[in-house]
């Protein structure tokens, strides 16, 4: 069994009458990569803060292994604004930084007694090239000005500096709170690969389901103040969670039947209640509490009627926009069609949000115009969010917009019922806004956008700070949405589910219209990048004469024909291996080491299947 790094025993945490979790226990061993899942407000960040020593707890134990190297990425990290990026990375207080500081002190003094010992520690921690490694990681996270002051950075850039700090210390255990927020897609995929390949033990909160699936070997869920553990990746968790809920539903149905009988018994003899068996009465009240906590069915599909939208949506005519030397669009033209669902992707700073702000009239282009149809009614969810009156109750925020939402087919929802679909229980609806967590406020903001019943939704990073349960509800809503949609998001899973084509902002006014999902785009781009790399290789010039090349390939060479014939068998073999690995990962019988090994192997197999399938498709054109 792997060595335990952290053990949590019977941990309880509450804020006044609100109990977040009660008597929860779990451990983290060497090699574990654990994803923590829960609804917003259930205590995910609070639990991480407790483990990091930043938050007290009511009872229980949190025990780290002695001398463990540990790092924590907070959801909203703070640095001295006067420090430069590089200085901030040397003020983290991790072991490597302390050893470097001690080495410099010794070298600056005349007393070199500890020099051999400190140099050995420098070797052990790979501290000699610490600065170079910091710069490499910062560069991967698109932080390139190392002498820039922290106070000049955006919130997202500060989060990336903090992430670099956590990674560079090479801890044995790292705890990450929403590490993919503020990362563009290239950075997310780099981080995914970095964590998958490393031996770091990991506990993280993230709503990125592809990230969870490809990195984690265990999922822990906080629900109803208890904890549930699943030994497998996110796909395995979904399967086993459904099984658990089915079992619980059967148990609750049984409890409901018993409750009805016991309630009848309690009512029939009110005068004789004092003489009833006390144990039976106590059991009745326990049963009543269990029945009252019956799970709300979150899988109800929520759809809105949607107001009428005409054939004319909008036309972008010769749109040019720049900020100084930074070009966003240059003479851009586009005709948006009825019921179109478009995703917008691209690196940070390429102009995605600026483009939709121009469409909404919040930002003016340098030249050109947007011609918008008369029936279009925009609903806009912005990155910045809505500034609520903190002293307003949750229900009042929504009722101020609409008391009732029309679902079509004669069905309607009150504001309270609509809030319940987005996981605001009736008791929670009468809380003041200031009591909500950050994720709950984003969820409330989403409700205020959707309840207006727009026919054209524009969502700018809607997935940030939303829990996975809310994301599933939102996805189902958008799939059935009877209107137009534009989404900007770094959530690959979300984009794959809700959009049918992409507008890709490459930067410097290069905008590409791609007819497919995000995954299809990445597959295409992988092939295209390889083709460009091959084309850019210098041609061999050592031959005296060369046979003239045909301008167009018409058939396979002998070697290509052999390769084509072999590929189908290779792909079938890999598919069989993938199925075996999936079954083994879902069995629940693997050790931590086996889980890590087989999770890494299944990632390799999937990548090989993709590569060989694309090669087969290339060759099949000429077969």
Explain this structure to me?
There is one protein chain. This protein has 623 residues and is an alpha/beta fold. The protein has five domains: 1-68 and 172-232, P-loop containing nucleotide triphosphate hydrolases (Rossmann fold); 77-170, no CATH class; 238-292, no CATH class; 314-522, P-loop containing nucleotide triphosphate hydrolases (Rossmann fold); 552-620. Helix content is 43%, strand content 21%. The protein has 20 helices and 20 strands. The chain has helices spanning 44-51, 85-89, 95-108, 115-124, 130-140, 155-168, 185-197, 209-215, 234-268, 278-292, 352-359, 394-399, 415-421, 426-429, 438-450, 468-479, 492-498, 518-536, 558-586, 592-620, and strands at 4-15, 18-29, 33-37, 59-64, 70-73, 173-177, 201-205, 218-223, 226-230, 314-323, 326-336, 341-346, 367-372, 378-381, 404-408, 411-414, 456-460, 484-488, 501-507, 510-514. The chain has a six-stranded mixed sheet, sandwiched between helices. The relative contact order is 0.09.
